[in-house]
Amino acid sequence: MASFDNTLGRSYAEIGQFASYARRKIQARRDSRKAVVYPFGAVDMFGHVWFDAHALHAVYPTSEYQVFFFRPPLPAKFQNMLFDLPCRGFEIIEVDDFSREIFFRLSATVFYDRPDFQFGDITFVFGGASNGARHLYRREARTRPYRATMSLTDEEKEQGARLVESFGLDRSRPFVVLHARETGYNPAHWHNAFRDCDIATYRPAIAALVEQGFSVVRIGDPSMKPIGLDLRHVHDAVTDKHPMLHPWLVQHCAFFVHCFSGPLELARAYGRPTLGINCHPGDLYPPEMGQVYAFKRFEEISTGRMLDFAEIIGRRFTMLWHQAQLDNQGLRLVDNTPEEITEACLDFAATLESGPPRQPRFEEFCAKESEVRRASGSKLPWERDFFMDVPMTSMAPAFMRRQPDYLDRDPWPLATRPPPPEPMSTVGGGTIAAIGKKP
Prior knowledge:
Layout: H1 12-26, E1 34-39, H2 46-59, E2 65-71, H3 81-84, E3 91-94, H4 100-108, E4 116-119, E5 122-125, H5 131-141, H6 154-165, E6 175-178, H7 203-211, E7 215-218, E8 234-236, H8 245-252, E9 255-258, H9 264-269, E10 274-279, E11 292-295, E12 297-300, H10 309-314, H11 323-329, E13 331-334, H12 338-350, H13 360-374, H14 381-384, E14 394-395, H15 397-402
Parallel strand pairs: 1-2, 1-5, 2-3, 6-7, 6-9, 7-8, 9-10, 10-11, 11-14
Antiparallel strand pairs: 4-5, 12-13
Helix pairs in contact: 2-5, 6-8, 7-12
């Protein structure tokens, strides 16, 4: 019998109640394909819907599976192409006649053993807001090749081409898409400020890429600071709100420079090479094969000491997801330097054809950390499975050249590791720790 042990202590009765409801909702729409039900609760999160859809397309291709994507009715501001494109091929079921409270709990619960369960002839994948999808996807990430799950139609490609003509993108040159996150698009999410970047630190890299023959297109939203570079072949596309622009740019770019934010998930979906700059190492961000990263560094505010990778992981700081947690630990995240960013971009551009170079030190560390986690017997999926242990995924060579201390030590023994820093969304005992209000 399947085990439904989970972080929020959801009862068999509630799970069964939703399973019965979902079966009734899909019955008249089923065809000959295998049925998959996915409850999705993060309706206001652009990145979540793209990643979850990508994971479902990858694991349950619609040629074989009929995916029923359950979600509450979308608010008017999210009823647009950017929320429709990733779900193309799914059956959308609006949940407007079932307990909203139960639905959201089931869509955010993390099930310990696995996220996917069989109820008769229907597969249910629980743990929305990307939790379930990430764990499901991660199971296969080590053996499946780097791949795209989505594409634009010919009509959409023509529409996107017309959009880039409006700002003069030179189609004879390869171009790089850049997204450097800022909080302005959603000031209410102040707790994510540690993920932000300063576009000024990217200017030397942008200029160097132009010198190498690329155009650079920055995407984002109109609240972002200007790039501040008056160069031909540099385009700031943050003021154009047409929903087709970002998907077209990402699908057609030579590579995408990201920082763990929503637009990264377009690059996953369209199978584009990605370089992560100013990323936050997090157990909930499984990489694709071949992705390259330069992480922000953790600094102790009181001493100025930089933490190495072993200490970051050993003290479970890969589970930090809120500014208050950093503050409570006396830490801050230090952005990559302009020199580091420039070297990382040029290195990546130079190895587009051959792929990133192997890094034995990093691979050895990942193998050791994975063994520690597998032997731990931990319940939570991300504590059993090291997020960076994916073939051909690596640290940016420029990061390692400039941070030679980062991999000096082996992973900490499990016995020396403290519990994850609170507040956490999922903690022992099935409780939810409250996040402190902004002072």
